[in-house]
User: What shape does this take?
Amino acid sequence: MFYEPDKRDTRLLPHDPFKAIVAPRPIGWVTSMSAKGEINLAPYSFFNGVSSRPNLVMFASEGRKDSVSFIAETGDFVCNLATWELREAMNATSAPLPRGANEMERARLAPAPSRLVKPPRVAASPCALECRMVKIVPIEAVGGLPLDCHVVIGQVVGVHIDDRFIKDGLLDTAALKPIARCGYDQYAVVESVFSMIRPSA
Assistant: This one.
């Protein structure tokens, strides 16, 4: 099968498979705070690390949602790790609530203070990345067509890790059981890992 995205045969593919192909995608469970002190917590599946020196992360928001607006106001955010144990709470925070509504409270998640940035982190999350905004990039399509899509790039300035998940100096990813977004309403959970050594030249 081959198709051009804007000419997809919806009789054969009633739902766009793009997100099922680009999968699994890590979830950026982002805490942000407005200039007024309002707290927002929202999951973003267009999320990833983009640099290790320094540690940089990015997430993309289709629409200028509260997370983007709040980060533009204060310059800080936190990426909390979404795990199997926190899957229902993570999903609860994806509901479209009015600006200023606190998703943490709605999902019955306790906040924990951050060390270097203003927004709180999710206390129950075993890992959290405190970030300072580098820039917000508006995205365009081919030909310069403007889109209502905004990429937030942040530099990690602080890292929280639950010590229970550090074994022999390494973070035990499988023990954390992070969840990831797939296509449609599907998710994946990391429960096992394997190693491959990069070959030398």
